[in-house]
C-alpha cells in the first residue's frame, strides 16, 4: 500500500516513525532504509522468491553497505582536499613529490594523497647575526690587520619554489654566503677606513655581493637590510688603536682651528693689501698730477721769461727770498729809521717759543724764518741781547 493512501502508512513516516511521536528516529532503522534505497539504485536490491526481505551476501544489504561506505569515503576524501593559504604566504603544490603549482592566499582544493601542500611565508622578515662567534668576528684587512666586526642581516623569501627545492638549507646557505661576502669586501679595504668612516660603504658592498651569490644559487631569498653593528680592533690592541683614534681626532680639530684662523685673517690681509694698492694708485696719480702741474707752471714761467727776462728774473728772486725767510726765527730791526717806541711780542722772540716769530702791526719788524738754525745758536743769543739793549735805551730816552 502506498504511503500516501489512507491507512497505508499506519501512522508512520517513511523512516519508520509514527507521526504522533515527537522523538528522534532510530539510527539503525535509518541506515537500513538507506541501504535499501542504494541497493535499489544499483539494481542489486529486491525481494526474494517469497517476496520478502533482501538477498544475502554481496547482492543484498551487504553490497549496499559497501557502496554507501565507499560513497561516504569519497565525500570525506573530497572535503579533506580543501585547504586555505594564509595571507602573506604561498602554497606550493607537490604531486607525488614533484612541483606542480604555486597558489596564492585564499581557499583551494587538491586531491589528497595525490598532491601535498607546503605553505611558505614570503612576507615575514627573518634575520641572522654575524660575528657572535670569535671565528666569525675576526677578519683580515687589506693592510694585513685584524678587525673585529659584527653584522645584522635581514631577509625574506621572494620565491617559494626556489626556496624549497633549489637549496637544501637556504638559511644556513645565507649565513655562510654572508660571511664569505663580508670577508671579501673587508679583505679589499684598509683597517682605518673600516673602523672610521667606511662602515656604511662596507655594509652596502657586502649586501650587493651577498645578493649576487644568493641569486646565483637561486635560493629564492632577497636581502632587505645589511647593517654593520660594530667595528673595532682586536681586544689585545684596542688601547693602542684608541690612542690613534684620539690623535686623529686632535688632528681634525687642529685643522679646523687652523682653517677658522685662516678664514679670519685672510680676508683682513686681502682688505689691507687692497687698501695699500688703492693708496699706491692714489699716490701715483697725485705725483703724476703734481709733476704735470709743475711742468705746466714751468712752461708758463718760461713763456713769461722769454717775453720779459729782467722782470721775471727779479720776481723769481723775490719769491725765492720770501720762501726762504718765511720760516726763519731771526728778527731784524732797523733802529735808526724806526719809531722811538717799539713793542715786540716777547713770547714769540727767538728762544722764547717754538712758534715762528711775527712782528706786531706797525712796528716795522719783518718776520724771520729758519735762518737761526743755519747760523748757529750763538748768533741767535747775541741778536736777542742786542734787541733788549736797544729797548732799554729807548725807554731811558
Please bin the fraction of helical residues.
40-55%
Indicate the overall shape.
Answer: rod-shaped
Give the CA-CA distance, first to last residue.
Answer: 198 Å
Work out the number of β strands: 9
Profile the largest sheet: 4 strands, antiparallel
State the order of secondary-structure elements, H for helix, E for strand: HHEEEEEEHEEHHHHEHHHH
| Secondary-structure class | alpha+beta
Global mean pLDDT: 76
Computed CA radius of gyration, to the nearest angstrom = 64 Å
In quaternary terms, these chains amount to single chain
Provide the β-strand percentage band.
15-25%
Low-confidence runs (pLDDT<50, min 5 residues)?
A: 44-61, 352-377
Individual helix count: 11
Provide a descriptive summary of the structure in words:
With 397 residues, the protein is of the alpha+beta class. It has 11 helices and 9 strands. Strands 6, 7, 8 and 9 form a 4-stranded antiparallel β-sheet that branches. The longest helix has 70 residues.
In short:
With 397 residues, the protein is an alpha+beta fold. Helices cover 50% and strands 15% of the residues.
Q: Helix and strand layout, with pairings?
A:
Layout lengths: L26 H15 L19 H20 L1 E4 L3 E7 L2 E6 L2 E4 L5 E7 L4 E5 L3 H4 E3 L5 E12 L2 H6 L4 H18 L3 H5 L3 H19 L3 E12 L5 H70 L1 H17 L45 H5 L1 H20 L1
Antiparallel strand pairs: 1-4, 2-3, 2-5, 6-8, 7-8, 8-9
Which descriptors apply to this entry?
single chain, 397 residues, alpha+beta, four-stranded antiparallel sheet, three-stranded antiparallel sheet, 11 helices, 9 strands, 15% strand, rod-shaped
Amino acid at each position: 500500500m502506498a504511503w500516501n493512501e489512507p491507512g497505508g502508512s499506519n501512522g508512520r513516516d517513511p523512516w519508520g516513525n509514527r507521526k504522533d511521536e515527537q522523538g528522534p528516529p532510530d539510527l539503525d532503522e535509518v541506515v537500513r532504509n538507506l541501504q535499501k534505497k542504494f541497493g535499489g539504485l544499483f539494481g542489486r536490491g529486491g525481494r526474494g522468491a517469497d517476496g520478502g526481505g533482501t538477498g544475502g551476501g554481496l547482492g543484498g544489504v551487504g553490497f549496499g553497505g559497501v557502496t554507501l561506505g565507499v560513497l561516504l569515503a569519497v565525500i570525506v576524501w573530497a572535503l579533506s582536499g580543501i585547504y586555505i593559504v594564509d595571507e602573506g604566504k604561498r602554497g606550493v603544490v607537490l604531486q607525488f613529490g614533484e612541483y606542480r603549482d604555486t597558489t596564492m592566499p585564499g581557499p583551494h582544493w587538491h586531491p589528497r594523497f595525490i598532491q601535498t601542500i607546503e605553505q611558505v611565508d614570503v612576507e615575514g622578515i627573518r634575520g641572522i647575526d654575524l660575528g657572535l662567534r670569535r671565528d666569525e668576528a675576526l677578519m683580515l684587512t687589506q693592510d694585513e690587520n685584524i678587525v673585529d666586526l659584527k653584522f645584522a642581516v635581514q631577509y625574506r623569501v621572494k620565491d617559494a619554489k626556489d626556496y624549497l627545492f633549489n637549496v637544501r638549507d637556504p638559511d644556513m646557505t645565507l649565513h655562510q654566503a654572508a660571511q664569505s661576502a663580508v670577508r671579501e669586501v673587508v679583505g679589499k679595504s684598509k683597517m682605518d677606513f673600516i673602523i672610521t668612516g667606511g662602515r656604511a660603504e662596507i655594509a652596502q658592498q657586502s649586501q650587493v655581493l651577498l645578493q649576487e651569490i644568493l641569486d646565483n644559487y637561486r635560493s629564492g631569498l632577497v636581502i632587505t637590510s645589511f647593517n654593520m653593528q660594530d667595528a673595532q680592533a682586536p681586544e689585545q690592541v684596542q688601547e693602542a688603536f684608541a690612542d690613534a683614534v684620539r690623535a686623529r681626532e686632535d688632528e681634525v680639530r687642529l685643522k679646523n682651528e687652523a682653517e677658522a684662523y685662516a678664514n679670519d685673517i685672510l680676508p683682513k690681509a686681502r682688505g689691507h693689501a687692497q687698501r695699500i694698492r688703492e693708496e699706491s694708485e692714489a699716490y701715483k696719480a697725485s705725483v703724476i698730477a703734481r709733476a704735470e702741474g709743475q711742468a705746466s707752471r714751468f712752461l708758463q714761467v718760461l713763456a713769461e721769461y722769454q717775453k720779459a727776462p729782467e722782470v721775471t728774473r727779479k720776481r723769481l728772486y723775490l719769491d725765492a727770498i720770501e720762501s726762504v725767510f718765511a720760516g726763519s726765527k731771526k728778527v731784524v730791526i732797523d733802529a735808526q729809521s724806526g719809531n722811538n717806541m717799539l713793542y715786540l711780542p716777547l713770547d714769540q722772540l727767538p728762544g722764547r717759543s717754538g712758534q715762528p716769530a711775527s712782528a706786531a702791526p706797525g712796528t716795522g719788524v719783518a718776520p724771520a724764518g729758519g735762518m737761526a738754525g743755519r747760523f748757529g745758536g750763538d748768533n741767535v743769543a747775541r741778536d736777542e741781547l742786542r734787541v733788549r739793549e736797544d729797548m732799554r735805551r729807548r725807554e731811558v730816552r
